[in-house]
Protein: Branched-chain-amino-acid aminotransferase
Organism: Brachypodium distachyon
Amino acid sequence: AHSKVGCQASLATKYMETSEIVDLDWENLGFGLVHTDFMYVAKCGPDGNFSKGEMLPFGPIALSPSAGVLNYGQGLFEGLKAYRKTDGSVLLFRPEENAIRMRDGSDRMCMPAPTVEQFVDAVKQTVLANKRWVPPTGKGSLYIRPLLIGSGEILGLAPAPEYTFIIYVSPVGNYFKVLKAQKIAKQKGYSDVLYLDAVHNKYLEEVSSCNIFVVKGNTISTPAIEGTILPGITRKSIIEVAQSKGFKVEERPVSVDELLDADEVFCTGTAVVVSPVGSITYMGKRVEYKGNQGVGALSQQLYTSLTSLQMGLAEDRMGWTVQL
Ligand code: COI
């Protein structure tokens, strides 16, 4: 087994050295899975420590039908991105934040988690091994999907006796491009769904894959992180970017009435980055957002600030990027 791993590792080194970019249709990249070369796999037994981990060819994994994740949903995922700079090198965006969130989530799910150091190191290794799949600058990014699953066999409801930490990657483009195609095909409907709180049915929660922001004048409001709201890393970053541009940002309950009365509305997430909302329909009433300075003007400005930092086109004064 050792020599097999050694051989795969040297294959990864070879890709790193040649560092050519794969021949893909970069212009038409959506948010769909593209198989890449390698995935990272590490296991953790009852002692709570994760093995060193190995880089394996991307492909199916074997799981017992009685694995904790299949029976009781004991598992979680993370998502982050790597961008290619114009000099060909690659930048990661705030990977320690994902490591910390995985640790917090795993605690809630009674799972052991890799250390922040092991997480970040594993992400770096996986991206470097698949470097040729990182899109050229401006054509998209490499989406990185870390998974932590209860892979051990269990019958009664209890934490699994073994866990697997996996990282796979896929080049991605625009998230909503995919949904837009569905929309045209269906000739009706909306791009996404916005959820309201379960108690009052009145306060904004999240859009299915992203956090939401409501703009009124110079104030930007977003639901506070209180149990049901995902502590998005893009959310947190956009709050800081907006504040540095002189906006007042409020984290608090935001009602649906404020949403309907807003100048501009946008979503944030790793997959969606910063996406303006064109319109919202609530109880049959449709509101279109035209913005103070044109449709989606602020979200466009925030998008550009964030992505130029992520792609290494602007100086990273925040210290958020990790150079590979
Ligand atoms: C993200 O990574 O931004 C996500 O929300 C995961 C998503 C693709 C469902």
The chain is about 30% helix and 25% strand. The pocket of 2-OXO-4-methylpentanoic acid is lined by residues 79, 209, 269-271 (CB under 6 Å). The radius of gyration is 21 Å. The first helix runs from residue 2 to 18.
